[in-house]
Amino acid sequence: MKISKNIINNSEGFTIIELVIVIAGLAALSVFSIPNVLNSLRLNKIEEAKAIMNGYASDCLGKYRSSTNPVDFIENATPDELDNAKLTTLGYVIDGTKNKCSHMAIKPQNENEENLFAFDFRMSSEGLILKTATPSNNPRFLNSCKGWAGNNCGLSDAQKAEFERLAAIAKAKSECISKYSKWLSDGNSGEDVSWDVSNETCTKKVFAFEGVPVNSLEAVEQALKAKYGQACLDWRVSKKNSNVIDSSAQTLNPECGGVNYWFHSGNEFTSQVGWNEYDNQLKKQACIQDRSDALSQGKQGKYTYGPTPGPDPCGKVVWLCNGEEFGTISGYNTSSCNPPSSNPPSSNPASGNPPSNNPVSEESPAQDDQGGFVDKCDDPGLQVLCMLGDSNSCQTLASYGCEGY
Q1: Are 97 and 82 in contact (CB under 8 A)?
Q2: 325 - beta bridge partners?
Q3: What is the pLDDT of residues 188-218, one digit of tens each?
Q4: Are 322 and 339 in contact (CB under 8 A)?
Q5: Cβ contacts of 68 within 8 Å, gap of 6 or more
Q6: Which pTM value belongs to this model?
Q7: With 0-12 CB in 10 A as exposed, 13-18 as middle and 19+ as buried, what is 305?
């Protein structure tokens, strides 16, 4: 049988030109396919990181619901499965100290990353989860960012500040309501504060009788009178009329039903905190007035604002000079109230030291307890030490210009 020449030639394979064309086609396809494959791999890593973060948020929510003190829990709790090593395998790390349920954030491990994006979640004191994210420079990953944070993908500085403000308000509200609830559960009577919705502050006056809320302080009085009679009210009126100042809790049993009262200068308080605030307010006003009087009257020298210890400026030690206040003795020494001596002091031939005019120092015996000045040469301590042979004491007396030294 005769084999055709054409058939034999066709079985010899591809020519070089055909191979070049095939390789060029594959190379052209790879230009489009390889970046897509790499982006797909990165997106898979992001989605896995999202799943981990959702697990953290779920863990925080579960703990929040079983917590007896949600505010403290959110500030201090961390997710049980928190693992920075696992995140690293996905190209992510925990963002600084943002590893609490209050704010959990991760960011790309490589600071120059162009594709992976940072994202986080915040948990409010009311148990609400807020997700935010910062988009990467690659627009192909924008949908993934929005899939996590929605409209919160890419926040402005103003939006971030607003989130922080709202979080602070929510925390303050939760703490305020928690304190008020405890005050009620302890069976207290009288006046307290709760959350003021209009002002967003813990300043709304609330009232209760033995842990039961009532509308006013008058309602508390009526409830007391109805349950225990007039005796408790008469006792409280007499304590207020006596203008007594007593920081200890007082009550009349059983007439006052175990409710404690604090009395101060004709005022009555139903908590130690209220009494302390009023007492500090009076002390501060008195010390401010004392400071004003001391400056206006031109008092000089060392001065302690009084009349009693208390909030600033009470107890503050200063040096006064013609209406000026100095916080240190060195400042006072430069004032017009401490000029150099006009009479040259005599030298001490025995010591051989020249006379000098030294300003008053903080250790100098030249000041009495009232801020006035006494004769430096009459200091008995220096005189005795000098007589016992202490040359430094003799030199100090000589520098003051004291005769005989």
Answers
A1: no
A2: 320
A3: 888 899 999 888 899 999 999 888 999 998 8
A4: no
A5: none
A6: 0.43
A7: buried
